[in-house]
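ESCALATION

Customer reports they have been waiting on this structure for their group meeting. Please prioritize. Original submission:
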Amino acid sequence: MISRRSVVGTGLAAAAAARLGPLGVRSASAQTPASLQMFIPAAPGGGWDQTGRAIELAMRGDGIVKELKFEYAPGAGGAVGLPRFLAAKKGQGDALLVAGMVMVGALVANKSPVSMRDITPIARLTGEYEVIVVNEASPLKSMQDLVAMFKADPGKVSWAGGSAGGTDHILAGMIAKAVGVDAKRVSYVAYAGGGPAQAALLGNQVTCGISGLGEFSEQIKAGKLRALAVSSGEPQEGIPTLKAQGVDVELANWRGVFGAPGIGAQKQAVLIALVEKMVQGPTWQAELKKRDWAGIFLAGAEYAKFVDAEIERITGILKDLGLAT
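Update from on-call: job pushed to the front of the queue and completed.
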C-alpha cells in the first residue's frame, strides 16, 4: 500500500528518470506553453479540483507557468467529462486533465465507450487514503457501531460518496464483503464530487460518507464531521484504521494528470518536464504535507503501464463486487 515514507525515494527516482521523457530522450524542442488549460471532470470542491488548485498554486508560486485557466465538466466520475476533453482538446499541448482511480472505475461502471487509454499519460502525482465519516450529531461513535447497523439492515445505511464505480464506491463494497454483507445490498448515494457529498453529510441527509482524507479534513478538524476509520495500514491524524476495528480492508486512491489525445511525443515531453519541475519545487512539497498526500510521481511510459494495470485490476474488483458486468 502507499505510504508517505515509502514513496518519497521512489517519487524522486521516478522524477529523475522522467527527465528522459516517454521515449527515452530529452525532448524539450516543443515550445513551453505560457499558460495551461486545467480540465476538471468533476464539480468544484472535490479531490480532482483540490489537485488542480494545488497544481495552480505550485506552478504560479514557483514561477513555472504564469496562468492556469480552469474548466469543469462534472458527472459520473469523469464519464461525462472525458468525452468532452477528448473532443475539444485534441492536439492541444497546453491542456491538462486531472483524473485518477475514481475515473478508472467510473468508466467501467458506466460502460463508457471511451477509455483512459485514449488520453496522453503525463504523470501520476498523489496517493491518498479514504476516510469513513458521519455527521457530528450521529449516534454512531465507531466503525464497529456502523458495521453493526449495516449488518442488521444493509438497506437502512446510506453511503455518500463520489460517482458510481469510483474509489468511494469500491471501498463501500469492499467493506461489505469483508463484514459478510452482499455488496449488491450497499445503498450507495453517488454525488458529482466530494463537495456535494460533504454537503449531504453536513445536512445529515445520509448515514455516512466516504472520501479522501484531505477532502473531509477541514470539517473533521472543525468538529462538524466525525471520522470513524481510515483505509490505511496505520492510523492517520489520530483516526483508527479499518483493520484495527475488525474490517480487513486497506485501499489508497491515486490522482494524476493527462494530456490531450494526439499531442505527439515532443509536446508530451514538455508537459512532463513542467510537472516534474513542479513536484520538485518547494510549493508542491508544502502542499503534499499540508494536505497529507503521498508524493508518488511516475511519468510517461511507466505511467501508461500503471494505468493499463489499474484498468485491469479495478475492472476485476468491480465484477467481484457486482458493480460491473
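Sent to customer with the following note: Residues 4-128+252-320 form a domain with the D-Maltodextrin-Binding Protein; domain 2 fold (CATH 3.40.190.150).
Escalation resolved.
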